[in-house]
Description:
Elements: E1 2-7, H1 19-28, E2 32-34, H2 43-51, E3 58-63, H3 65-75, E4 82-86, H4 92-96, H5 103-112, E5 114-123, E6 126-128, E7 131-135, H6 136-148, H7 153-166, E8 173-179, E9 182-188, E10 190-195, E11 216-221, H8 226-238, E12 247-252, E13 254-258, E14 263-268, E15 271-276, E16 279-292, H9 296-304
Parallel strand pairs: 1-2, 1-3, 3-4
Antiparallel strand pairs: 5-6, 5-16, 7-10, 7-14, 8-9, 8-13, 10-11, 11-12, 13-16, 14-15
Amino acid sequence: MRVALVINTESGSVGGATPEMIRVRIAAAGIEALGEADRAASLPARIAAAVAEPGIDAVVVAGGDGTVACAAAALVGHGTPLGILPLGTMNLLAKDLGLPLDLDGAIANLAQGVPRRIDVGDVNGRIFVINSVLGMAARVARHREAHRARRAVRTLLRWALGLLRHLGRYPRLTVTGLIDGTARRLRGQLMAVVVGDYIEQPGQVLIRAPVDAGQLTLYVLANLSVWSSLRLAVGFALGDWRRLPDVERLPVGDLSIASRRRALLVMNDGEVLLIPTPLHYRIRRHALTVIVPRSETGQRFAEGAPEA
């Protein structure tokens, strides 16, 4: 097996797994990982170079969900599979796909797994593989990145305390949604467009299934006060949160979001973007191929799925 490997050393939980260690373990599994011509380049440039490598069996990225999303955007529409070494903090897509979360298990999956085509979301031409979030979360993420750049514990603590103090006092976002041809007013502190849908199981937080059914789901959270956030956390723990009074869930096939603002802050898979309105969301079914553990279901999908 011959792969193009990109390692993001900035990911949340790389820890002691140095790039050299990762490459040694990959080689020990019988996989040839090509070297990078310019490791100092930006992550999108490194991934683009990996995708352009001729004669490879997969593009493999080691990192978190942001790294995976960057690779997915470059690989949508390509036949080359994406291999994931989940070395981030959340590793949400890896959990959705049942990938091993330890390094050795993830490397073994590269050699022993099977390709599976999954859905991705598209908003104004920008790809996301998990969710696209508007409102409070996107604003908070922008401020978090600004504070993170200072790398001061006191600054980050001040940011966290400020967030708790002002939770629920962020202004609600009011937009007009065109949902499968029907217009309606949407108002909430957080809106999330999810590829597929979240499942409700005790202790399972923001896990999606299935990820290949050709569906988007819109969640509107009217209020994110401290009390409602605690109630939501308890709902996650008990596996019963979608019916809470502050949560509205709308399965959608086609979605447009209009606003008086010329652009809205949108957080796609953790990356904060300023996207001109209106926002046009659509599902791109089976547009990305990912290497997943070999199983009866995965094998059947790999063999029988239609072309992306």
